[in-house]
Amino acid sequence: MNSAKMEKANLDWGDLPFGYVKTDYNIRYYYKNGEWSSGEISSDENIPLHMAAPSLHYGQQAFEGLKAFETVDGRIVAFRPDENSHRLQKSCDRIYIPRIPDELFLDAIRRVVAANARFVPPHYTGASLYIRPLVIGTGARVGLGPAEEYLFIVFATPVGPYYKGGFKPVRALVVEEFDRTAPRGVGDCKVGGNYAAGLRGSMFGHEKNYPIVLYLDPKEKKYIDEFSTSNFIGIKGDTYISPDSITILPSITNKSLAVIAGDMGMKVDKRKVDIEEVESFDEVGAVGTAAVITPIASIKYRDREFTFCSNENAGPVSTKLYERLTKIQTGEYEDRYSWLMEINP
Ligand code: COI
Predict the structure, then answer these.
(1) Which ligand 1 atom sits nearest the alpha carbon of residue 290?
(2) Which residues face 234 on adjacent strands?
(3) Is the minimum distance from the CB of 229 to ligand 1 under 6 angstroms?
(4) What values do phi and psi take at 282, rounded to 5?
(5) Ligand 1: does its nearest atom lie under 6 Å from the Cβ of 55?
(6) Which residues in 230-273 belong to E strands, given as ranges?
(7) Which atom of ligand 1 is nearest to the CA of 253?
(8) Where are the domains of the chain?
(9) Fold classified for 170-329
(10) Which of 136, 146, 217, 276 gives 55 a disulfide partner, CB atoms 3.0 to 4.6 angstroms apart?
């Protein structure tokens, strides 16, 4: 059925926060005796979990975040789910969780989105259906070691912009008091521990009225790593710059924007970015699935403040990148790299 003609859930689509809204279904796959089950749709929002599960004690869990959209011509599409599948496999390898095969991952995305099709926001609202795949070690185990059983669950929830106001600049603070990751830790994997380690830094920023904080590399404390929620990008002249670091999460949004920037005739540069260089950038953005591109108005670094734009208006390049990306996602701009996976409700 055409999504635009479907009876949608009764929600204030234009005013959704980035939060949890109950939807109809989630999907669950169980790993036992070396095999993943074929997946069952559930309407239960809770999961039965043994109190000795290694995911609870030893943080043996990994997750993903991706979005589904309604296109202008009424289709439902997920943005680059194959990339999330590959990234989840990398996270799983690192923390000893059995890989979720691509076919199973994509099956989960198709089924959970189709089952919750009435929660895919109408395209003109700017909102999306956020999809959260999560894999956790479930079997009871007290000694340190990987679980023998796992649950892979995917839920979906309609969301608005991550930062208040949508595509509106926010102020950032460089946090040096706490690290998000260790030099050879799990910073490049999407595991809960990185976000738990970053909570203290985020709250430190919030207390000082900075909605977002920026981390430097944990070894030299000199190079840009990433923001608390998302990757860092900088625009300098006609160059799109993103930091090269082994401790940052390879953002799918960043990777996509780099391609778009190249298509727009910009140079694309992935290299170490010294915090001292940032002062010379024309524009800075925080990029990720949830953040999309959040323009950074200024960065407070020790006793200095680097300013890139006003609190009201993003810079011209960030604006163009944002528009191109969101138009691809809603089918208003050619999907020339087949980034969209169509889902039949
Ligand atoms: C995402 O962008 O999808 C994330 O998982 C980041 C999270 C802080 C919401």
Answers:
(1) 2
(2) 241, 284
(3) yes
(4) -85, -40
(5) no
(6) 231-236, 239-243, 267-271
(7) 2
(8) 3-160, 170-329
(9) D-amino Acid Aminotransferase; Chain A, domain 2 (3.20.10)
(10) 136
- Nearest-angstrom CA–CA distance, 175 and 302: 9
Pocket flag, ligand 1, residue 288 (CB < 6 Å): yes
Atom 9 (ligand 1) nearest CA: 290
Atom of ligand 1 nearest to the CA of 64: 5
Tokens encoding 174: 């460089």
User: 290 C-alpha vs ligand 1 centroid, how far in Å?
Assistant: 5
d(CA 133, CA 87): 12
User: Cα–Cα distance between 72 and 292 in angstroms, integer?
Assistant: 19
User: Is any ligand 1 atom within 6 A of the Cβ of residue 65?
Assistant: yes
* CA 214 to ligand 1 centroid distance, Å: 15
CATH topology of domain 3-160: D-amino Acid Aminotransferase; Chain A, domain 1 (3.30.470)
For residue 147 the two structure tokens come to 């679980």
Query: How high is the pLDDT of residue 166?
Result: 85
pLDDT given for residue 264 in this prediction: 98
For residue 50 the two structure tokens come to 């043994």
Residues 6+ apart with CB under 8 A from 333: 324, 327
Give the total residue count for the chain: 345
Which atom of ligand 1 is closest in space to residue 66's alpha carbon? 3
What is the number of other CB atoms lying within 10 angstroms of the CB of residue 204?
A: 15
pLDDT, tens only, 288-326: 999 999 999 999 999 999 999 999 999 999 999 999 999
